[in-house]
Design brief:
It is built from 16 helices and 13 strands. With about 475 residues, the protein is an alpha/beta fold. It has a single domain, classed as Amidase signature (AS) domain (Amidase signature (AS) enzymes), CATH 3.90.1300. The strands form two sheets. The chain has an eleven-stranded mixed sheet with strand order 1-3-2-6-8-7-12-13-11-9-10, sandwiched between helices. The chain has a two-stranded antiparallel ribbon with strand order 4-5. A hairpin with a 5-residue loop joins strand 12 and strand 13. About 60% of the residues are buried.
């Protein structure tokens, strides 16, 4: 099955003429048609255009970039000219909103010849940890369809490990790439804030959102990130720092690398199989020449509470643009303008989006701003300082990605706070704006994937890729595939 190839493998075959881009794209299409009725990972299929683009690539016969002719899926928040983009929300789905422009990431992938197959499922406006808030329904975990694939990039993660595409785009605000990557057993990179452009990607929380990818290997993730990173005049938050040759640096080895294990990430209540797998990974790193050191990140316990004040506050601001006037859901025969706004938003938004808007509006309201939002920003600074202090002593920090393997669909429906706790190990890095690489490190006794995350200092993606690649070469976890 060609769709099971990694980017590196597919590129090699394309350059040798052993396969064509058309055959590769068709293989992904066939796979989607075969398994997605079970998984629900793909919410829009752009197959005709994908095949046309593949034929154009084949006719040129030039595969001078590793992504030339490689098919991918984009999370349903990436703007793509003329392609429906709904953020999996009824407020945009009703009238099939199709942007008139490409996101910067989409544009950069097009420039090197990558081919979009369509859109992957996500929690509504990326608000959730399981894709259960999507207006298209939940994405099921390929390893066990009674379990969630994670969120909000659950559709992207499930599609990658199920070989429905060669790679997928995601976004990570509080763990939305790293957690589903771990639940589905693929590789996911959450970048330093400002490493990639957010232009053309629908916002949830603007000071936390990052653009990243889900892939089948660390090498693939490095190839993609190198193509989509860099300064963008359309996004003032992007960094002017040059983009390193990530792929070239993969094989430098990790002898002498100092890896920190924070005691706050190995706590009572986490699944013992998760802890066992991550500690076993630490021993593997040690056998490869790295030094393991116990460290402390003292403000970790405040991370999730801080995140769920700052994030909803920014949500309440960003969601204000969806008013049904310029595009999206409309309300017929309103009594007046206020009635129109109320009906559009109450009918168009789902429960989780409404919940976050209300929490954020409350936190920002007069009389509560100082008590909640301002205090949360101060704690955010303390969380960031914890990481800065830690990186004076270690090069990389190793932690679990999530406290448990994938949970059962519907398990947190009546308890959103419990769902928020799924971000406990990923949210602090997002608050600090540092990069995180999620990679498979084991399986539970029930054959559910377990993932770990490697955290680095700002713009330390190269070191994370080096460490992740070394671990990957020494283990077989990333080679295991679900049977569908």
């Amino acid at each position: 099955m060609l769709s099971s190839l990694t980017i590196a493998q597919a590129h090699q075959k394309l350059t040798k003429g052993e396969i064509s881009s058309t055959e590769l794209v068709q293989s992904c299409i066939d796979r989607i048609e075969s398994v997605d009725k079970t998984l629900n990972a793909v919410v829009y299929r752009n197959f005709d255009r994908a095949l046309e683009e593949a034929k154009n690539v084949d006719q040129k016969g030039v595969f001078d970039h590793p992504l030339a002719g490689i098919p991918y899926l984009a999370k349903d928040v990436y703007s793509e000219a003329g392609v429906p983009t709904t953020a999996c929300s009824n407020i945009l789905r009703e009238k099939t909103y199709a942007p008139a422009f490409d996101s910067t990431t989409t544009k950069r992938l097009k420039a090197v010849g990558a081919i979009s197959l369509g859109k992957a499922n996500t929690d509504e406006f990326t608000m959730g940890v399981s894709t259960e808030t999507s207006c298209y329904g939940v994405t099921k975990n390929p390893w066990n369809t009674e379990k969630v694939a994670g969120g909000s990039s659950g559709g992207s993660a499930a599609a990658v490990i199920a070989n429905e595409c060669v790679f997928a785009l995601g976004t990570d605000t509080g763990g939305s790439i790293r957690q589903p990557a771990s639940y589905c057993s693929c590789t996911g990179i959450k970048v330093t804030y400002g490493r990639t452009s957010r232009y053309g990607v629908m916002s949830m929380a603007s000071s936390l959102d990052t653009i990243g990818t889900l892939a089948k290997s660390v090498e693939d993730a490095a190839i993609i990130l190198e193509a989509i990173s860099g300064h963008d005049p359309m996004d003032a938050t992007t960094s002017p720092l040059p983009v390193p040759p990530y792929r070239q640096q993969l094989t430098k080895g990790i002898k002498g690398l100092k890896i920190g294990l924070p005691k706050e990430y190995f706590v009572k209540g986490m699944d013992p199989e998760v802890e066992q797998s991550v500690r076993a990974a630490a021993k593997t790193f040690e056998s490869l020449g790295a030094t393991i050191k116990d460290i402390s990140l003292p403000h970790t316990d405040y991370g999730i509470a801080t995140y769920y004040i700052i994030c909803p506050s920014e949500v309440s601001s960003n969601m204000a643009r969806y008013d049904g006037i310029r595009y999206g859901h409309t309300a017929p025969k309103p009594k007046d303008l206020l009635d129109y706004y109320l009906r559009v938003r109450s009918e168009g938004f789902g429960p989780e989006v409404k919940r976050r808007i209300m929490i954020g509006t409350y936190a920002l309201s007069s009389g509560y701003y100082d008590a909640y939002y301002l205090k949360a920003q101060k704690v955010r600074t303390l969380v960031r300082q914890d990481f800065e202090n830690a990186f004076r002593d270690v090069d990389v920090i190793l932690t679990p990605s999530a406290p448990t393997p994938a949970f059962t669909i519907g398990a947190h429906t009546d308890d959103p706070v419990q769902a928020y706790l799924e971000d406990a190990f990923t949210a602090p890095a997002s608050l600090a704006g540092i990069p995180g690489l999620a990679i498979p490190c084991g399986f539970s006794k029930k054959n559910l994937p377990i993932g770990m995350q490697l955290l680095g200092p700002q713009f330390g993606e190269s070191t994370l890729f080096r460490a992740g690649h070394a671990y990957e070469q020494a283990t077989e976890w990333h080679r295991k595939k679900p049977i569908l």
